[in-house]
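Can you give me the bound-state structure? Components:
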Amino acid sequence: MAEHPPSWAVFALPVLLAAVALVTAGADALLAAGARAGPARSPREAAARAAAPARGVLRELVRQPRRTRAADVALVRVGAALLPVAAMLAGVVLPLGFRSVSDLPEGVVWYNAMEALAWAAVWLAGWGPNSALSLIGGYRFLAQGLAYEVPHMLAITTAALGAESLRVGGVVDAQSGLWFAVWMPAAFGIHLLSALAMAFWGPFDRPAGRDVAGGAAAELSGVDRILLLGGRWLLLVVAAAMSVPLFLGGGHGPLLPGWAWTVVKTAAVLAFLLWARRRVPALRMERWTEAAWVVLTPLAVVQALVVAVVVLHR
Amino acid sequence: MDLRGRIVRAALGRPRVLAAVSAGATERRLAVEAELARRGWPCAAAPAEADLLVVAADPGPGTAGAGTADWVARLWEAMPAPRARVPLADAGEAAAVLDHGLAELRRRGGARHGGGHRGGHAPAPPAGSPDSPQDPDGPHAGHDSGLVDGLPLAGRADDRDGLRLDRLHLPLGPALPDWPAGLVLRVALQGDVVQRAAVEADPPGPGRLPFWNEPWLRAAAGERVARGEAARRLCAAHLDSLGRFFAVTGWPDLAARARYARDRALGGAGAAELSALVRPLTRRARGSRTLRWLTAGVGVLPAGRARSLGVAGDAHGRMLGWLDAVARAASACDDGAPLAADPAVGPRGPVHGPVPASRALLDALPGLLEGAEFACARIVVASLDPDLDELARAPLPGAAHG
Amino acid sequence: MEFVVFWVPAVLAVGCGALVFRFDSMARATFSLLASLLCTGGLVVLLGLDYLGVVVVLMMTLEMSVMAVFMVMYMMNPAGLTPMTMTHNTRAAAVVCGLLFALLAAGILSAPWPDRRGRPPDDPTLDLGMSLMGPQMLTMMTLAMALFATIVATVVLATRRGRYDRLGDGLRARRADDPVPGGVGR
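Here's the bound-state model for the whole set.
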């Protein structure tokens, strides 16, 4: 089913991902402002609230990039720039409908590898500025990584196992009937959790938490700040969008064309995540790690086992 | 107007504001926060993301005065251009001061800061840079000097698990987001584990009544104060503490709602409106199993100390106590009957005790913080939320009662 | 084109590897090593072994980041590390490296390399999986158990608190007694 995409898709992908990230961030800003100052009194006010992330990008562009004393500027720059690059590279295997920029034969592993670059990126951005709060943010992310990565790998492996293919297109094809989310609910849930964790956003936002004055982003201003915080939104969008081909049937669905189904499902996942983040406080790793290793990892192994048995007897 | 000017105008239309608040400036802080929320201007968490610095800090008595100027200057130094700084001397002027700050910021943004100046900006001190003399153990053996670019190196010490790891001495505060104004904790950090903590409280200047205790102090001085007014102040005080607590535990939605309710309470909303705002807040905070799982067992105070402190239990229990008090106070804030002068119990405890209630809370802090991870330490501080305004031992009108 | 695709990562891999010994900061050295390993992963992909190449990228990123944490534990001063040399005992190391290089080079040059028989498989990933889970299953299982046992043994040797400290002499405590309680209590 996979068709070759036109060559301009390579340039369209970053633009599209950035636009979706901006819209998502705008919706989040609208909800946040509503909680702080009551519901918007006019549509104009609501629009101004939703435009906050866009205004923030503009603001950082006119601001001076800042340097802290005895900072390792090169590492900060590499860390901040690596995050959006990793998100974009992971997005290469994302199918819109049944087409992706490149349907790599090992697409699922590729997504995993690119998303793991965030480990290096956030740690570098946290270490570089020579500031204790920012460093705490940096290694909070690694602690988080150790907690989420193993269940996450098992969850996406389960999807690949169910489809008997490491190709994202193959995983979508295998769901023309029953969606994987239906018969691998644990893997789906774990994937959503790890999507939040890898983007260090929502209940997993401690690496850039307000209690450490912004954590890994605490000392960044100007373009570096846009790259790191924008990269985090991109990563969230890519990871949320990835749950559509892996677990929610990709472009399959009645009536509408494939691309429309992808858009609808991705929007639904993102809306769910935006809603869920407002309902829960942030998870601290000293409590969560144990839950992830003692509860989630065995759960993911059992889920993989069940799927493996089903696949063997198909 | 050229394109650049227009972009700058749009970009700086809603600047990020960092408020530098010293002890004794609670009323001004609340006025600034309410005004920012009304305008939809964001609050900055660190100087790196701030455009506008609002200084609500009194030059305190003696050495502390120099100290205040010092940390405000360091904040200012750490902000990237374009930036503006405005003093706020009175809570009533918050709106005018913010307008003035915006105009100033636009003026500076319009004057190109770019070009040659861009690279020449002096490197800013990082937030919480180690500024105190370092470990007696001295820096690492094998390194050639104890200083890098004027900053001291970490020394080493045994950690909680018996490993010999690097230790960093840092001041926490006074300019951290969601942190009690005027509080400085000198901590020894290993990784993100607090090894030792010492409290350094900057007392406010004399002459101002502690904002949260004001109704009780005025009643004690013989003024006629309505019970409703006291209930309103109590409700707002606890909502303020809850706002900090939720912000620190990473629940921005609930923090925002608590602060909205607080602003409404201080803005004169009726009991019905307040109760309607407070009820969903209480229900969600109480019903959240995740919050209980995360904050139960953090910062446990032994029962024996409960009497002297007025608080007990763990962080989660203290939050539940605030929620109860807020719900009670919200329904009582239209009460017109006069407030009895005795017993005068404010949000943090008796307002005339031999020692201010917040002093006892501060004294309890170091013991609770030792061995806590950074995030837990923040939760412990937020769950006690000492009010440093109370430390002013100026001749209070009702002191004779005590 | 192929020329560029091979030589760019190849030169970068060697260059970043050499830089590890030139940098005077642990963070830079670690991540320079990571850059070198990522380029190597790219070269493995170029050999047609896509899966192995991507897995190299994945595992090395995670490993190097965790290595950075250990580094932070023992040398905390963020970024402003006093310049410190990454080379120790240089003379002996140079001798060992020289000998090893000579040995490997001699091996490469003198070994009777076989000619290629057959063609590369259509799906090398499938073949790799079949080989690992088929004829090499026993090797892989033994290796995995040995690695896992090493990890467990190291932790047991390193920790001062065992399960009896945490759960009491009869292991009957409902929640473990930890300095910082975990989320489950086991």
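A couple of observations. The first helix of chain C runs from residue 2 to 22. Helices of chain C lie at 2-22, 26-46, 50-74, 90-110, 124-133, 137-158, 163-167.
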